[in-house]
């Protein structure tokens, strides 16, 4: 696929930015059909800033995460076609979800519908899995709708955690799989959208 034929992606992130980094790194491969043009964050200070600076991706602080018209204007300016959430801790405004219907992707660190919903993110999820003494956990990649963690599932990966004796062990194991699978699924979604153009 020629260099300029790609789907333009915006990432929304609130945390350390490890999934964002994996997605940006993948975008620089020959087989990637997407390009990350901008990162939006609701935090004034987070690890995502150093990832953006190191990988030379513009980052914008959203002062009001509920201001849909401002967010849509920013996305329009960059000609964004797909949104990828990477540890973004806010619900996107309904107008944004509707404008990008079927084109917003998210990753969740469990096998949804288990351990999903408001407040269930990152170590909160891993702690719940650990406390329930589960032999496995996993990740879910899904499209985003107007509720937390309820959009159409695109894929799930099950991860054995029998050998994990701490929340940190679980987190580490899950993160490794996230970094492998999330960029592939984003690329797949972008290929589908590209083919429809």
**What oligomeric state is this?**
single chain
In CATH, the architecture of the domain at 7-110 and 139-157 and 183-196 is 3-Layer(aba) Sandwich
> What is the H/E order?
EHEHEHEHEHEEH
CATH superfamily of the domain at 7-110 and 139-157 and 183-196: Formyl transferase, N-terminal domain
Mean pLDDT, all residues: 94
β-strand number: 7
- How would you describe the shape? globular
- Order of strands across the main sheet: 3-2-1-4-5-6-7
Radius of gyration: 16 Å
Question: Portion of residues in helices?
Answer: 25-40%
End-to-end CA span: 14 Å
What is the class of the domain at 7-110 and 139-157 and 183-196 in the CATH system? Alpha Beta
- According to CATH, the fold-level topology of the domain at 7-110 and 139-157 and 183-196 is Rossmann fold
Count, helices: 6
The largest pleated sheet is described as: 7 strands, mixed
- Are there runs of 5+ residues with pLDDT below 50, and where? none
The portion of residues forming beta strands comes to 15-25%
Structural class, from helix and strand content? alpha/beta
How would you summarize this macromolecular structure in one to three sentences?
The longest helix has 30 residues, at 167-196.
Structure overview:
It is a single chain. β4, α4 (94-99) and β5 form a beta-alpha-beta unit. A seven-stranded mixed beta sheet has the order 3-2-1-4-5-6-7. It is of the alpha/beta class. The longest helix is centred in the last third of the chain and has 30 residues, at 167-196. It is built from six helices and seven strands; from the N terminus they run βαβαβαβαβαββα. It has a domain at 7-110 and 139-157 and 183-196: Formyl transferase, N-terminal domain (Rossmann fold).
């Amino acid at each position: 696929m020629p260099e300029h034929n790609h789907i333009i992606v915006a990432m929304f992130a609130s945390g350390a930015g490890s999934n964002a980094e994996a997605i940006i790194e993948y975008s620089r491969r020959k087989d990637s059909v997407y390009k990350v043009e901008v990162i939006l964050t609701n935090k004034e200070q987070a690890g995502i800033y150093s990832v953006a600076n190191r990988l030379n991706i513009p980052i914008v602080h959203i002062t009001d995460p509920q201001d849909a018209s401002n967010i849509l204007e920013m996305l329009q300016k960059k000609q964004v076609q797909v949104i990828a959430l990477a540890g973004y801790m806010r619900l996107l405004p309904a107008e944004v979800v509707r404008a990008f219907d079927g084109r917003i992707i998210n990753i969740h660190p469990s096998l949804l519908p288990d351990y999903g919903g408001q407040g269930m993110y990152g170590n909160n999820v891993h702690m719940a899995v650990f406390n329930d003494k589960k032999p496995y956990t996993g990740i879910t990649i899904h499209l985003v709708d107007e509720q937390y963690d309820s959009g159409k599932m695109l894929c799930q990966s099950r991860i054995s955690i029998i050998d994990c004796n701490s929340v940190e062990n679980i987190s580490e194991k899950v993160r490794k799989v996230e970094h492998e699978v999330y960029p592939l699924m984003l690329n797949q979604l972008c290929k589908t959208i590209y083919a429809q153009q």
